[in-house]
């Protein structure tokens, strides 16, 4: 579980969110918050992205750096668009599907880790 809020200012109070429901986490400089993306919602946390990833992974999770502002949950990755270097978390991809872009300089390392952590990922 991680403690998150449903609004960037924290006015909603903390909510416990199960880590398994997290698809990816991104840092948004404009609001100086981590945005936690799930299938249907966005939540907010404070703190550095690296600290968050280290703590999650030391707790038994499998998060991978996509770029300097995004990490994704390898366990929830369903497919990788190898042309655009994007991770998808749904089998049926639509225009509204959430995706996490992988930086070109991190792509090979991220894919190598992903292939070990989640052998069910589809590459297309």
Describe this structure in a few short sentences:
The chain is an alpha+beta fold. It has two helices and eleven strands, in the order βββββαβββββαβ.
Would you kindly provide a written description of the structure presented here, covering whatever features stand out?
The termini are far apart. With 124 residues, the protein is of the alpha+beta class. Helices cover 17% and strands 35% of the residues. It has helices spanning 49-58, 107-117, and strands at residues 2-4, 15-17, 22-28, 33-38, 42-45, 63-67, 70-73, 79-81, 86-88, 99-101, 122-123. The strands form 3 sheets. The protein has a 5-stranded antiparallel β-sheet with strand order 5-4-3-7-6, sandwiched between helices. Strands 10-9-8-11 form a 4-stranded mixed β-sheet, with no helix packed on it. Strands 1-2 form a two-stranded antiparallel sheet. Strand 4 (33-38) and strand 5 form a beta hairpin. It is globular and about 40 Å long.
């Amino acid at each position: 579980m991680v403690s998150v809020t449903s609004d960037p200012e924290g006015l909603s109070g903390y909510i416990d969110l199960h880590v398994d429901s997290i698809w990816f986490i991104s840092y948004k400089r404009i609001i100086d918050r981590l945005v936690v993306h799930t299938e249907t919602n966005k939540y907010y946390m404070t703190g550095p992205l690296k600290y968050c990833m280290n703590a999650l992974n030391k707790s038994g999770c499998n998060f991978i750096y996509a770029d300097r502002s995004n990490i994704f949950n390898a366990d929830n990755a369903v497919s990788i668009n190898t042309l655009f270097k994007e991770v998808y978390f749904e089998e049926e991809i639509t225009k509204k599907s959430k995706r996490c872009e992988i930086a070109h300089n991190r792509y090979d390392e991220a894919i190598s880790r992903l292939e070990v952590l989640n052998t069910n990922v589809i590459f297309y």
